[in-house]
Amino acid sequence: MITISDIQKRIKAGESVRSIVEDALKKLEAAKEYNVAISESRESALKHADEIDVKLKKGEDIGALGGVPYLAKDIFLAHDTVTTAGSNILKNFKSPYQATCVNRLEQAGAVLIGKANNDAFGNGSSTENSDYGVTRNPYDKTRVAGGSSGGWTAAVALDIVPFSIGGDTGGSCRQPASYCGVLGLKPTYGRVSRYGVVPYASSLDTIGTIANLADDAALVFGIMAGKDEHDSTTLLDRPVSFMPADNPAKTLKIGIVSEHMRDDVVQPEVLEAVRTCADKLKKAGHTVESVSLPTLGVSLAVYYIVAPAELSSNLSRYDGVKFGYSASGAKSLEELYGLSRDQGFNAENKRRILIGTYVLSSGYIDAYYRKAQTVRTKLINEYNEVFKKYDALIGPVAPTTAFVIGQNSGDPLQMYLEDLMTVGPSLAGLPAVSVPSGKDKNGLPIGVQIVGAQRGDALLLSLAKQLEAAK
Predict the structure, then answer these.
(1) Does the annotation mark 172 as catalytic?
(2) pTM
(3) Could you please report the per-residue DSSP string of 394-432?
């Protein structure tokens, strides 16, 4: 298990940043069988490493993440890179500017070594919908790493880098973290700027962090978080530390979400992992009891109306004219639109575009989209009421551990059910973290999800730290 502290110790011991970055690039190359990355940023990464080495020789400050290599999900715009969003429609798209969070990490000294594999435009729960091939699970190459962020999650699990960044719309950070045995943080909606990030569903998209330890996730998150003039949805917060050491978890009241503890839906070993975590929290002095949120039962249906609706709007910009793939041989502008989208988008993109367009159409917007938004508000109100009595909620991240590649490919509904436990916090804009919590009988990792009230990110990371230390 590699951590940010490990990298910092190597630099302090005299190792050059260039050699550390070269080592990470070699590991990335050696892990090609797992299909972790879509592209490498070798030239720019080594250039950045050399610049940091010059600062070190001069005795200058290199930043909180100085010399630490990382990967970004291939939805982040970054200088000197191609940003594909996992789709052929953007396979030659060079980033014209850089995402705010990439800028902030760069200013803190972190070194971007490549773009990680993901489902095209984040449309998937297994990274099987990437136009660049499936990412394989580090614990079993016959199984998925999770989605839509399999690549950047597997990269941390394989010890290529100590952290990575990506997007979480309905569970894309937490679910693969559970499958790959690492920590996945989805912050409160708006805590991190989405400027320069290819959108999926704008009212749901959140910038997440994968790491091996809560301390590392907290450090990276703290650097990225904060108001951004380029993103009006970012929260205006006073300067705050998210480090667990600065936010000790006092005696808390924690609820186990009863709707997610059904033995007819959830793998027995996953349920047992949640109960084990509950016992650890009780031993730490917290009160743990069952709690109900009735509207969670329809949250998946709400998500798969709201998210495709926003996706259909966001993907309308890909028309073969302004940027991205443009089909040849079209005889009219309308035909150019049709051919470019038909050839550029994959089957899952088209499925979700069709669903989204349908629920927004004049005959059905009231019956589906507006009703879904009403139920979303009801769910938010339920969470608000629960958090008047409880400090945090726990439950499974996903119904099962990582499934076999191809197992759910022919059944979209079964694939969507993998998001059953993660979409609720996303719809409500709540922070949530997946914490590694043992393995099943096949040696596959299990994650337990902790959910907090809005802006309760620091508390979640503190609880995650407690679970890391608990026996």
Answers:
(1) yes
(2) 0.97
(3) EEESSSSSPPBTTSSTT-HHHHHGGGTTTHHHHHHT--E
pLDDT tens sequence across 189-239: 999 999 999 999 999 999 999 999 999 999 999 999 999 999 999 998 877
Measuring CA to CA, how many Å separate 272 from each of 333, 366, 439?
57, 42, 10
The question of whether 280 is a catalytic residue gets the answer no
Identified catalytic residue from 125, 126, 130, 172? 172
Instruction: Report residue 36 as tokens.
Output: 């972790």
Point out the catalytic residue in the list 73, 186, 280, 465: 73
- Between the alpha carbon of residue 258 and those of residues 255, 271, 274, 294, the distances in Å are 9, 11, 11, 9
Please determine, looking at this structure, whether the domain spanning 1-471 carries the CATH number 3.90.1300.10: yes
pLDDT in tens, 93-120: 998 999 999 999 999 999 999 999 999 9
- Choosing from 41, 125, 126, 148, the catalytic residue is 148
In sequence order, the β-bridge partners of residue 225 are: 192
Q: Which of 3, 6, 457, 7 is nearest to 246 (CA)?
A: 457
Residue whose tokens read 């969507």:
416
DSSP 457: H
CA distances to 83, 88, 427 from 35, rounded to whole Å, are: 17, 16, 31
Task: Please state the separation of Cα 224 from the chain's center in Å.
Answer: 14
Phi, psi of 121 (to 5 degrees): 60, 25
Contact 81/71 with Cβ under 8 angstroms? no
Tell the burial category of 250 from Cβ atoms under 10 Å away from its Cβ (0-12, 13-18, 19+). exposed
User: Apex CA 222: angle with CA 286 and CA 109, to 5°?
Assistant: 140
